[in-house]
Amino acid sequence: MLDPNNSSKQQKAFLRKLYLAHLIKSESHNLLSLTQLTGMPRRTLQDAIAAFADIGIECQFVQSGVRNNAGYYQIDASGPINLDWVADHLEQIALLLEISASNN
Predict the structure, then answer these.
(1) First-to-last CA distance in the chain?
(2) pTM value?
(3) How far is 45 from 3, CA to CA, in rounded Å?
(4) Which domains, ranges and CATH numbers included, belong to the chain?
(5) Which of 11, 36, 73, 103 is deepest in the core (most CB within 10 A)?
(6) Confidence class of residue 69 from pLDDT cuts 50, 70 and 90?
């Protein structure tokens, strides 16, 4: 189904959003923990999270301290995205994105 030899830049960007939404829905994460977990650059993570709305995912940053970056992301609604499907295909998605899914 997900063919790493035949994936476009757009498909990878879409799957990256799905992957990050799954991580955020599964556990409280901020940019630092997502960077450590995925190995993705901070800017790539910020861009993907900012573009969640493009695919119907509602996400917010929940402030949990006085510092601006103290807190975590929270998925409020996944819109048309079935995050159970993402969980079932996590290994394939991680392989295509060249990320280790063993910690997820």
Answers:
(1) 21
(2) 0.88
(3) 23
(4) 10-97 (1.10.10.10)
(5) 73
(6) confident
